[in-house]
Amino acid sequence: MADAEGQVIVGLEVHCQLDTKSKLFCGCSTDYRSDGPNTHVCPICLGLPGAMPALNRMAIEFAMKVAKALNCEIINEAEFSRKNYFYPDLDKAYQITQYDKPLALGGYLEIEGDGGGEKKVRLTRIHVEEDPGRLLHMGNAERGKYSLVDYNRAGIPLIEIVSEPDMRSPKEARKFLNKLRATLEYLSVFDSEKEGSLRVDANISIKGSERVEVKNITSYKGVEKALTFEVTRQKNLIRRGQKIDRETRHYLEARGITQSARSKEQEHDYRYFPEPDLRPLRVKSWLDNIVLPELPDARRERFIAQYGCSPSHARTLTGELKLANFFEQVVRGDPSGLSPLAATWIADTLIGELNYRDMSLDLVDPAAMIGLVQLLKSGTITDKSGVEILRVILDQRHKGEATETPDAIVKRLDLGKAPSDDTALLPVINEVIAENPKAVEDYRHGIDASGNFLVGQAMKKTRGKSDPKVLYQLFSKVVRTKEV
Amino acid sequence: MARHTIPFEPDDPCHSFLTTCTPAEYGDGPLAGVAVAVKDNISTKGIETTCASKILKGYIPPYDAHVVGLLRSAGAAIVGKTNMDEFGMGTTTENSAFGPTLNPCDPSRVPGGSSGGSAAAVAAGMVRMALGSDTGGSIRCPAAFCGIVGLKPSYGRVSRYGLIAYSNSLEQIGPLGKTVQDISTLMGVIAGYDRHDSTSQDRPYRHTPAADIKGLKIGIPEEYFGRGVDPHVADVVRKAIARLEECGATTVPCSIPSMEYALAAYYVTCTSEASSNLARFDGVRYGPPPDTRKPWHDAFQEVRRAGFGAEVRRRILLGTFALSSGYYGKYYAKAQVARENVREDFNRIFHDVDVIAGPTMPTIAFKLKEKTDPLSMYLADILTVPANLAGIPSISVPCGSSEGMPVGLQIMGRMFEDERVVDVAYAYEQAVN
Amino acid sequence: MVTEHEVQHIAKLADIGINTEELGTFTAQFNAILDYFDTLDTVKGEGTGTSELFNVLREDEVEISLPQEDVLRNAPATEDGFIKAPRVM
């Protein structure tokens, strides 16, 4: 299908750190984040004269797992090359990467397209390379600027996954990234929670205009933001009749904007040539020995079939490895009984509350969630009380306070459902009817909103502990009776 | 391990050493107490290692090259670091940032290069043996010019880990010594697999030289006695080969057609790799400090301009050009095809002969400052680079003199048949002594 | 034929400062050398590119890194464990 003039076209280059124990070409530990600068380096990753790279087998195995999961083809003979350029964070003044003989070609990843339904995003290639060191920008204009370098990150294995320009909106780009992250996590080759473990360069164009490369996107949300900014910027230029330059732009995360890289940086000639200190890889046959775990799509289908999840809940729940595991932990004891409620409460309520607090799922004890869902299922509490209990639990965890079980919270806050027999509630109903004659009148004339208003008033009087359904039935009964 | 020391405070009129270790430590083992000199491009933990370049002045490696570790475990006394052409780029050792080494046989002449300091130290009797490195003849050339023995091992037999790379795909560390027995002993210490060098092979060297060469077939390539080769040198080498025939070998004429472009392929390859290898010298992690207030390109340019000598900068530029966009196919890619053709030529010849013999160098040692034009200097490597391009073992053994200066006989062998070239050299040495 | 302009461009790529006097000499020497390199134009064949040594890999095992003081010892300028470098912004 040909794109119409003005269509947004996006392709991504995603760099992910592979979660090996040691670096790509040396034995230095990859677990550097909590240690001081330059404490995880050796002659090899520091680029000392005379040091030579030795390739980590696990990094290649991890990359091949990814290639298999993404339906790529492994090439017969892969090779490492040197990408030559000067930058203070680059210890050898070249990066060992793969150029004309990358490990894997082709493949695809399915995402939920903007038009609904599954959409295949084709991949160009996957290759393995080393991360450079990390630079801090120091000083100021008056006293002189300089950089500080920490080589702990230098040599961490990366895979670069390059997509075809198959995405048609910033939202699709975000979905691609989320799906990719989930897939890599299911494969146990990647830890998305490690700071800086993922970096994205995006190519974006408006059909009919030049392509712009946006570099330096370092977060999942950043991709959609950066691309949305670019779409607006480019469309504004086009509207004003201006030309879009083919250029590289940097995403400035803090400001949410992109900025043109200086033209000097764009005059690159990387002078790639085969890395003479490494031997070629002929690993295609390894594919046969790779057994893939259940991947997000399969798990989603299973959640629908096994737990009766709605397609949208199943997608959300399986969209993150931890979340999917959490869900299954919660329902394990009573799958048929707990699944429908657990799916809603985890996929909708829990995620919303966690996002609101910017809090990790790790802090939530599955047992607490089980307790909560059981209270809801037995009808002991109302949905409203359920939310309140969840908030108390999350706030306690978030603040590191002593935590209570849902049962204890119900007792302490007296959140048990009020008796739902008519005798206990009738006085409340009558009180509300007496206080709101106008609403009663409207309700009698079939205005539903008035009925909801009356139920709300009654809920207030019972401090949210009554079942709104029961209240509604009582109202309709009482009002009808009075009419007669 | 027991540690002992020997004093090492020699006269060094030829300027063989850049650094001496006084006293030098040694341990127990097959080389216990033997003084060994190490070329200054081989990393030595705690001992300054400069590649004879200002850009590495003061650099103290925090680790030992694999071969240095092996030397230490064999009990050798590492007595110092020897002078060389800066980063190995030269044929005379005149390209040292710290002044040239002189030839002990005639101090008005160069010792050859780039392992000139190692060769001169052995020739002058300061040490019994030394390590050099050979990218395009850098062990064999100074061995020939100084009248000693030098072996370039088969590519992969000696670990390069810790050898400061000039041209990774071509170079090997190898032994220099007064006698074939000595270089054989040293080769026995340094050869073998090293997991830190992915190009190293599990082919240890356990060999005692044997002088019996009856039935040996020697190929004599016409190109090694043709244009550009000093007729006097050619005569001396022919006589040496005749001596081998007297020992029971037979000779077969042969031809290496790829010699026509071998030198070009060599210089394209080594300068390309060098341009990348030497890019890391920017003063950030070691070396002279860059001005950190300047933008990085400006700061790096200043450091590299001041730190590298003219020949090094020339080769970096050549290599950068050969790899640059639009020229890669014409130069680098073509050179790799040429290399394969050289390898095939040797394979074909080695189908019929056991070794190939000829002069090591086309001339005797040059006078100091005799050669100033870079291209004519490069042409002097024509007879040594084929072995590097093909990866095969090659030895230079003294075989007489011309104008009073030593001449080297070069013997090249099949891949990994280092033992055989050592034996042929040994047979010659035994026959003339 | 390479021009002085091209040599200057290459010098920039290689971050090698060359001054004006050198530029002329280097360019002339380059042209002589590149002329010689043109013999490569006569090279026949494609090259098979095959190599007997492949799949050289090490196991994913952590080894001890250098002590920080050894890492910093050769660096001309350091600050709080970092290595000081020219500015890039």
Taken as a percent bin, the fraction of beta residues of chain B is 15-25%
Count helical runs of chain B: 12
Largest interface between protein chains, with number of residues from each side: B-C, 66 and 50 residues
Sheet with most strands: strand arrangement of chain B: 2-5-4-6-8-7-12-13-11-9-10
Cα-based radius of gyration of chain B, to the nearest Å: 20 Å
Put the structure in a nutshell.
The complex is a heterotrimer of chains A (484), B (433) and C (89). Chain A is an alpha+beta fold and 484 residues long.
SSE blueprint and pairings:
The complex is a heterotrimer of chains A (about 475), B (about 425) and C (about 90).
Chain A: E1 8-17, H1 57-69, E2 73-74, E3 81-84, E4 94-97, E5 104-105, E6 108-112, E7 118-130, E8 134-140, E9 144-150, E10 157-163, H2 170-186, E11 198-206, E12 211-217, H3 220-239, E13 247-252, E14 257-260, H4 263-266, E15 273-274, H5 296-307, H6 311-318, H7 321-331, H8 335-357, H9 366-378, H10 383-399, H11 406-413, H12 422-435, H13 437-444, H14 448-461, H15 468-483
Parallel strand pairs in A: 12-13
Antiparallel strand pairs in A: 1-10, 1-11, 2-5, 3-4, 3-15, 5-7, 6-7, 7-10, 8-9, 11-12, 13-14
Helix pairs in contact in A: 2-3, 5-6, 6-8, 7-8, 7-9, 8-9, 8-10, 9-10, 12-14, 12-15, 13-14, 14-15
Chain B: E1 4-6, E2 17-20, E3 24-26, E4 35-39, H1 66-73, E5 77-82, H2 116-123, E6 129-134, H3 140-146, E7 149-152, E8 172-177, H4 180-190, E9 217-221, H5 231-246, E10 250-254, H6 259-277, H7 296-307, H8 310-323, H9 329-352, E11 355-359, H10 374-379, H11 385-390, E12 394-402, E13 405-413, H12 418-432
Parallel strand pairs in B: 4-5, 4-6, 9-10, 9-11
Antiparallel strand pairs in B: 1-3, 2-5, 6-8, 7-8, 7-12, 11-13, 12-13
Helix pairs in contact in B: 6-8, 6-9
Chain C: H1 4-13, H2 20-37, H3 68-73, E1 78-79, E2 82-85
Antiparallel strand pairs in C: 1-2
